[in-house]
Specification:
The complex is a heterodimer of chains A (476) and B (196).
Chain A: H1 3-31, H2 34-56, H3 58-65, H4 72-95, H5 106-115, E1 126-130, E2 137-138, H6 140-146, E3 165-169, H7 181-194, H8 197-207, H9 217-240, H10 246-257, H11 272-285, H12 294-309, H13 313-342, H14 351-365, E4 372-374, H15 378-386, H16 394-402, E5 406-408, H17 411-434, H18 438-467
Parallel strand pairs in A: 1-3
Antiparallel strand pairs in A: 2-3, 4-5
Helix pairs in contact in A: 1-2, 1-4, 1-12, 1-17, 1-18, 2-4, 3-17, 7-9, 8-9, 8-13, 9-13, 10-12, 11-13, 14-17, 17-18
Chain B: H1 5-12, E1 22-24, H2 29-32, E2 38-40, E3 42-49, H3 62-68, E4 70-73, E5 83-85, E6 90-100, E7 105-111, H4 113-116, E8 120-121, E9 128-129, E10 134-143, E11 149-151, E12 158-164
Antiparallel strand pairs in B: 1-6, 2-12, 3-4, 3-6, 5-11, 6-10, 7-9, 7-12, 8-10
Classes of the chains: A mainly alpha (476), B mainly beta (196).
Chain lengths: 476, 196
């Protein structure tokens, strides 16, 4: 494992731990009822043990950060640390489901209202906080139908058809970057309501695979699932650009920490590297690149390549042929799906938006919220102001002042700027934190993440107020 | 000496980041920039006191100041946001704008006459913003009138004026270890317990 890879995984793992602790501490401080204290305290105690575990590994982590070679034994120690942390994290997070859930943030409502405009209707589509890395979308009707109270059987939303409930992991409540996953789930919602992907999957089977008259039902089911996921990925891409795929990449990397083998093909979802490739191809057609998210995309590709290299050759061949056929299918179906999405009148993310996001990122990294942007450069405005004298007429002065006007940006641009910034400083954050004395490492990480979330949240809040302010102009 | 409108505008685009005033978003500069001040508007969040279960505020106790005394009021989803401040009521809110004050300027938060005439005070006692401060400003809203006042995010309820210092602050707010509200982005309750 390369040091870049290790740094990335350590940073992600520490972030998970910190976010979980923040949720627990908030519950303890603000939402606590005495009957839950023992559970929350117990969970925080577990988090504390993993903090300690990290700190015990500081000498090895410092070596990784300094790009020094680590011995095989040290590498195993780090992998074990990562694996134990992620497993504990999964368990603790899912235990939170036994406690009353928090409500979602008001900023998330606004995010959905703008991003999914004009389709989004909170009366038709609910968002609830749920189990970790199981952001998905399901039908409430089906959940009710399959709920068997007498047999004490609770339906597993993963096995239900898509519908009107979108789920977001509890841990992601305060992390706007992760909200991008809802754009994917929204794609499933559109699909369910309008039957978009199924006919295209059937058409592919008919035209390309030239099947026997009695096509095995499994094959049809698999292709329909793959088409459904492709539609969801492309909806996220349509609305958010390249960022739409990143929560899945991040999720996959977290799962990957727990295993030495590449994650298997589940016959429902294309492999994540395939999905990434499909979005990369779509972005290329639209003059966009995923280069600025290299920290995430490269980490995933490197991780999979390293694990695949260790597979027996027959397994390697099977994976390679799965990748080939699913990529071909996704590329065949891509434009038809994008045309279907286009019919809903949603706002498409373009290369201009990505450029704006890249500009906004600089402001964000300077610690300033990014809900708005000036249309004139500082130099242009300074030049206009320098021409004013005490005898300038008020109209001339006001014209110069008007150049300071800031126009509202789009929520998709805010989110993209956030992802670019996060990608750029992913490993730097770890380096910064571990350069501090032990007692300050986690508080530093905690403050930085909290600030990152708050900045994005406030940017979204600014957008929501500007949207309701009559004097605000939309950027052309 | 207070900065004039033109000087304020020039400071907003100063090529030297250390001398630049940052106020963002500046939604309607022509309306917001007055002869010697810049109007500021109301953000979304409010904190209102909870009096029924708290006998008194103990400034030494973080929990009593931080989590028991004030509660958040959220925006109702899908409805136009309205907040009524009743006579004699005291609530915390923030500016919508993010501010950064350069180290060679001081800043004062002031109410606006039009709101003052309705009885609205935007701060109870803390109007001064230190050189080097960055973040949103917290309003200490108080209705001194006899009727409730309707407030909405985006309402321009206050103004900031800036004045020159005799020199750059030696230790500006952002570099001072004791500063309690550095980079604040939300409605902040008192952190007086940090001094204890």
């Amino acid at each position: 494992m390369s040091s870049t890879q290790l740094k990335f995984l350590l940073s992600s793992s520490a972030e998970n731990l910190i976010r979980l602790e923040s949720v627990l501490k908030r519950r303890q401080e603000f939402g606590a009822s005495p009957e839950f204290n023992a559970i929350i305290d117990g969970m925080l105690d577990w988090c504390g043990r993993y903090r300690e575990n990290y700190l015990q590994h500081t000498p090895i982590i410092s070596k990784v950060i300094a790009d020094e070679e680590v011995s095989p034994v040290e590498e195993i120690a780090l992998k074990t640390l990562l694996r134990n942390s992620i497993n504990t994290f999964f368990v603790l997070h899912d235990l939170l489901l036994f406690l009353p859930r928090e409500k979602i943030r008001k900023e998330l409502h606004f995010f959905c209202q703008e991003l999914f405009f004009p389709i989004y209707d909170p009366k038709d589509l609910s968002i609830i906080l749920t189990s970790v890395y199981n952001a998905f979308e399901y039908s409430l009707d089906e959940a009710i139908r399959s709920l068997d109270v007498f047999m004490m059987k609770v339906p597993d939303p993963r096995k239900l058809p898509f519908g009107h409930v979108m789920e977001l992991a509890i841990i992601d409540r305060d992390n706007p970057l992760s909200w991008a996953i809802l754009a994917h789930e929204f794609g499933h919602y559109l699909d369910q309501k309008n039957n978009l992907s199924k006919p295209l999957a059937d058409k592919f089977l008919q035209e390309k695979l030239k099947p026997e008259p009695n096509l095995p039902p499994d094959l049809r089911r698999i292709y329909r699932s793959l088409a459904s996921e492709a539609l969801a990925d492309l909806t996220a891409y349509y609305l958010l650009g390249p960022v739409g795929i990143l929560p899945l990449v991040n999720m996959e990397l977290n799962f990957a920490m727990a295993t030495d083998k590449p994650l298997p093909f589940d016959f429902k979802h294309p492999l994540t590297t395939t999905r990434l490739q499909v979005i990369t191809n779509a972005a290329k057609d639209d003059q966009m690149t995923l280069g600025m998210f290299g920290a995430y995309t490269q980490a995933l590709q490197d991780d999979e390549a390293a694990k695949e290299a260790k597979l027996p050759s027959d397994e390697k061949n099977v994976r390679s042929s799965i990748k080939k056929s699913t990529t071909e299918f996704a590329d065949w179906i891509r434009n038809a799906l994008l045309q279907e999405i286009e019919k809903f009148g949603l706002t498409r993310f373009s290369s201009v938006n990505l450029q704006t996001a890249n500009d906004l990122k600089k402001t964000l990294l300077d610690g300033i919220p990014i809900g708005s942007i000036r249309q004139h450069t500082r130099e242009e405005i300074a030049e206009a102001l320098s021409r004013l004298t005490t005898t300038s007429p008020p109209s001339e002065t006001q014209a110069a002042f008007a150049m300071l006007r800031e126009e509202r940006v789009r929520v998709a641009e805010v989110l993209s700027a956030g992802w670019i910034a996060a990608s750029e400083k992913k490993t730097a954050l770890l380096e910064e934190a571990f350069s501090k004395p032990d007692a300050e490492i986690f508080p530093h990480l905690e403050n930085t993440l909290e600030n990152q979330d708050e900045l994005l949240m406030k940017s979204i809040e600014i957008l929501s107020v500007m949207e309701r302010t009559p004097s605000v102009t939309e950027r052309s | 000496m207070l900065l004039s409108d033109l000087d304020l505008a020039k400071r907003l685009v100063d090529p030297d980041p250390k001398k630049r005033i940052i106020i963002t978003p500046l939604i309607d500069p022509v309306a917001q920039i007055g002869p010697s001040s810049i109007n500021l508007s109301l953000g979304v969040g409010f904190k209102v006191p909870v009096t029924s279960s708290v006998p008194f505020i103990n400034p030494d106790d973080k929990t009593s100041v931080n989590t028991q005394y004030m509660r958040d009021v959220d925006v109702p989803v899908g409805e136009e946001f309205k907040f009524f401040i009743h006579p004699g009521e005291f609530v915390l809110a923030t500016t919508l704008e993010y501010l950064r004050v350069p180290r060679d300027l001081g800043c004062r938060l002031e109410g606006r006459s039009s709101y003052g005439r309705m009885g609205l005070l935007v701060h109870v006692t803390a109007a001064f913003v230190d050189p080097g401060y960055s973040g949103r400003l917290t309003f200490e809203l108080y209705n001194a009138g006899r009727l409730p006042i309707l407030l909405k995010p985006g309402d321009r309820v206050a103004q900031a004026c800036f004045h020159n210092l005799s020199g750059d602050a030696q230790i500006p707010y952002d570099q001072r270890q004791q500063s309690k509200y550095k980079g604040s982005l939300s409605v902040e309750v008192s952190r007086i317990w940090k001094e204890k």
